[in-house]
């Protein structure tokens, strides 16, 4: 199977035009639209792309936090990315996405040069049947962004898609870009946010929700990630607590061959 | 037991002098010194305090991310706190701590007005013997900040303190301010960072480590927190992955009576 990186809808969706150092212009993508506005995962990837394409960037991302301050409108936006501190092997970033000169998204990130040292993964990869043996998510009544992923839910589908009665919000799913695309930090970022909202797993009504803050720790170094092929990854997530309008969503993303790629947590607003 | 909030060493350590709106001056505290420089938990609390004392602040904190960009020196510092976006019920913040006009810490936070709605805690509080039945941590060879806490480790003490052989980095501990102090968002923030580094639980050598980025989600609303008394809280934490110089530390803080107060995650640099 062959595919052209540059023509993949994901690369177009996150495309930025750098006007001057650290100042970019972009546009939301109809392919990755959500129910209202763009899919937050692709917006997070776009912010990360502004860092990785910055001429002063050193190393690869280890930490990213994105704060969704206001709804992103379907139109042009400006991104300003600034290194706030550059050390010998780590670099700290502050990034803002603006529309009408107002802050819509704020973000901090850390990039770093990793080096070989003692390493240990404590968590075991969850057991899961092979990707091909899990039925594909039916693409009925889903927003456009979902149609760019092949999602196969092993456990914890939204209540609207299943008759299973559940008592927790745990989801285990295979996911890959559709059409296929080689995994990189940008697609991994988006995949960290590509779980259905936890409250839809616990409760049937489609209440309004929105991510308030998203954090991703990248556990894979650039050279190992560079060896990954275009293949599905396994995502595991759950909410620990739903409390008075806000819940968390905590998860891990594993490569098919059992490497922990990223851990992620987000805080989500809900109206129930 | 009585105590004076204003004279508690923690309140002195996080004290800020607001010179103009959102511009503060503070000083590191010898009481909360770490091996080198100040304890990062108290620095995180001080940044949060700059938000909570800002005249434009609405609501109480729901999310806080603190990026430790460079070592904080033991001396004066300046904090600049800005609301980046104010909505009807949520507010987004960007805060920087500067020394010599350079960014040393950057931080984002979300404050919000919570409201009563459907709520559910999925995780059970870990089982633990009562605080009084667990031996107190011996205060030998510990940095000054540890001496401001009564820490009682049920499981997962640093290898230097114990002969237990362990295969994971899980720690379960009771902790409270010493002298006692009523719990608030500031002390809760600091307690989220008051676990010993995970790598010292897994491995004996005291290798250099430093938190790179810390995220806290506050699950307790202000009025419920206001009813908390000065009493120990239960902290549970673990690392999922140690990889080429960076590991995560993920945890939960519970009140004595089983309320989930906060979830937290941090990325830590280590040299092994």
UniProtKB/TrEMBL annotation, chains A, B:
* Domain annotation Acyl-CoA thioesterase-like N-terminal HotDog: ranges: 34-111
Q: Which residues form the Acyl-CoA thioesterase-like C-terminal domain?
A: 133-269
Q: Which InterPro entries match?
A: ACOT8-like_C, Acyl-CoA_hotdog, HotDog_dom_sf, TesB_ACOT8-like_N
What is the name listed in the Swiss-Prot or TrEMBL entry for this protein?
Answer: Thioesterase family protein
> Which organism was this protein described from?
Staphylococcus nepalensis
Tree of life domain: Bacteria
């Amino acid at each position: 199977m062959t595919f052209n990186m540059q023509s993949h809808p994901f690369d177009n969706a996150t495309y930025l035009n750098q006007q001057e150092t650290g100042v970019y212009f972009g546009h939301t993508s109809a392919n990755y639209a959500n129910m209202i506005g763009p899919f937050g995962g692709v917006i997070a990837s776009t912010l990360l792309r502004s860092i990785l394409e910055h001429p002063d960037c050193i190393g690869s991302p280890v930490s990213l936090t994105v704060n969704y301050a206001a709804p992103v409108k379907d139109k042009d936006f400006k991104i300003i990315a600034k290194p706030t501190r550059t050390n010998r092997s780590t670099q700290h970033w502050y990034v803002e996405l603006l529309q009408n000169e107002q802050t819509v998204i704020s973000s901090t990130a850390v990039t770093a040069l990793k080096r070989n040292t003692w390493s240990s993964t404590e968590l075991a990869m969850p057991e899961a049947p092979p990707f091909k043996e899990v039925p594909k998510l039916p693409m009925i009544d889903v927003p456009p962004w979902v149609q760019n992923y092949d999602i196969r839910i092993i456990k914890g589908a939204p209540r609207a898609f299943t008759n299973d009665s559940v008592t927790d919000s745990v989801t285990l799913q295979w996911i890959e870009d559709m059409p296929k695309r080689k995994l990189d930090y940008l697609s991994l970022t988006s995949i960290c946010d590509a779980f259905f909202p936890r409250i839809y797993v616990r409760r049937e009504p489609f209440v309004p929700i929105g991510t308030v803050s998203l954090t991703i720790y990248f556990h894979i170094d650039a050279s190992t990630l560079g060896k990954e092929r275009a293949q599905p990854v396994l995502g595991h997530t759950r909410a620990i607590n739903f409390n008075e309008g806000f819940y968390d969503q905590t998860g891990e993303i594993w490569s098919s061959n059992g490497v922990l790629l990223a851990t992620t947590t987000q805080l989500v607003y809900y109206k129930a």
